[in-house]
Amino acid sequence: MTEQVIIAGFGGQGIMSIGQMLTYAGMIEDKNVSWLPSYGPEMRGGTANCNVTVSDDMVGSPIVTEASAVLVLNKPSLDKFESFVREKGLLIVNSSLIDKKTTRNDIRTYYIPANEIAAELGNDKIANMVMLGAYIELTKVVAVDSVLEALKKVLGESKAGLIPINRQALERGAACVN
Amino acid sequence: MAKVLMKGNEAIAEAAIQAGCKYFFGYPITPQNEIPAYMAKKLPQIGGTFLQAESEVAAINMVYGAAGTGARVMTSSSGPGISLKQEGISYIAGADLPCVIVNIVRSGPGLGGIQPAQSDYFQTVKGGGHGDYYMVVYAPATIQEAVDVTMEAFDVADQYRTPVTILGDGMLGQMMEPVEFKQPKKRTLEEKSWATTGYIGDRPRNIINSLYIVPSMLEDTIRKRFERYEVIKKEETKVEVYNCEDAQIIIAAYGTTSRICRSVIEAAEEIGIKVGLIRPITVWPFPDQAFEEYANKDAVKAFLAVEMSMGQMVEDVRLAVNGRKPVHFTGRTGGMVPTPKEILDKIKIILEEVN
Amino acid sequence: MAVVFDKTKGLTDKAFHYCPGCTHGIAHRLVAEAMEELGVLEKAIGVAPVGCAVFAYEYFNCDMQEASHGRAPAVATGIKRVLPDNIVFTYQGDGDLASIGTAEIIHAAARGENITVIFINNTTYGMTGGQMAPTTLVGQVTTTSPNGRDPMLAGYPIKMSEMLATIEGAAYIERVSLHDIKHIKHAKKSIKKAFENQINKKGFSLIEVLSTCPTNWGVSPKDAMLWLEKNMIPNFPLGVKKEVE
ipTM score here? Predict the structure, then answer.
């Protein structure tokens, strides 16, 4: 199993965090992982993206050029990364902010109203976790519990109270693709 | 110790601290900023000192002063800053001072760009500063390896009284991977009886110096240093040879580029092309022997150096292969990263030519 | 036999390479005596510059480091940050401190580095053969200002002590002169105080020492002393520029 994922969106949408969470979860499950962010001026309010690899084998190139999955949270990211999905790969689109449909028919595409679901849950900031939930459900690359364990470590004791709502977000995302 | 997920830059900084580095002098530049930030946070907690210098020039000279007292000390920067440090690096080499320098390479020349590159190879490996000297240069490919070589670098610097550079790139500095901190194999290191610590009467006074106004004395000093370089070549050269048995094409690549090449090897295998990889872990000393060995094998048709530059290490590959097999080059520069497909296409072209 | 004079233990027995009449010798002795009298020789670490005093590491009888041109304050910072209880000093000329090393000295002062700086101002690059220095006076002839320093072409001499005195991190800045016995005696006191400040952890102390260069000025040692008094002091007024109690 080797999952090579691109996650992209606006700065502030939690793009880097869900990438790290996925990576961390992979590490908890003793898989080989790497997380590579875009960096530099483009991070200042523009689009952010990261490449995540989770694999049973040693990670070769940490750069993802032919992605097994692409998660896009805003429209410019769809335009930029749609072509990176390899044939039969996975494209997960945040339909709350992207009204466009994909032009590709050689891939599997899912449209998730991530921001609306997040709003229903009462926290606009967790649209990213809804997207991650959908992706994990589709690939089973890591267990939801591993993601929550990673989240616990990243958030720390003081913010442990945020775990339940994050679990809900992951579950709602998963429900969208069942 | 359990594995932790860390950014390359932070992992290098933590490795330095675990290797006993208590002093860090630096100046901000992308893409290495997490190193000084980490040091600024951690060093005061262990009784060490982080200082943001007024310039790269000052930073490397602070390193010189601190190294002259026998302390374990480090600085880090990226291309333009490393250029400014060259004066100090030459003096450090000339005064036989141990220290560790980290170069998280970005693209050049000039201000260039901030994306990953390997175009500082000549500068780092062939001198950079003025005069006859080398320094040990590690080129790690993973964050785990960056941690391992950084920890070892302080021992190597002390053992041979030489500056050591960790040659990374923006990708290695910015990415996250799981790492484990393990102490390197224990070396017997001599006490630093040469350090300027105040002589307190019980030893002759010490002088840290690179000036020898009598040419014969300078020549003697340099020759002795080069004798040490021979020992370093023999004892400290590191290389990974991967998949080279029966290989038709052998790729030469170091650092993060070598990881891209690993993906190429798998893709080549699928279409029936046998590709191997020789990956220098030290780029100085350069692993000549590994290249010589495979240059003599009949199965090997050609070598292909792959770099994020217009071709710098390829010159060392050519010297090592010494005309026994053709040596090709492919690469991207300016912060562009070669893709596995580009490299595989080049391999196909080379094979068509030789067949 | 009664000893009436003994050379300071702060200097080695190595004969100075300085030109006849040059005041570097006097300045070396004052610094060495100050360290000996304060009992700090055995924990002193000096930093030599590039310039005429490049061989200072051969003369001062303590641990020494030789820095690259202008960087002595950075090197001293590196030493002092590792060994805060040792005594660290730099000995620098005007080209070293006031030209190529301007950034290093200003920032060492701004950080309030607890070091002692001896700054020899003789208005010329002596070692390289008498080129124009940042402190060369207007109208002064050097090999690179053959018609005299022209402000329209080469700007004005820098008054380092006055400039450094504006810096909050500096504890003690004084300009002294070596042109006669009275002033030499005073210079000794000031240099000693600059070391005492370090012992008492008062912070950055710098003594600017007006000095002569008979060789490159092209005058006799005696006339050089007179030239210093007549020409340099009006441009570089003596006295304490800053002192933090």
Answer: 0.93
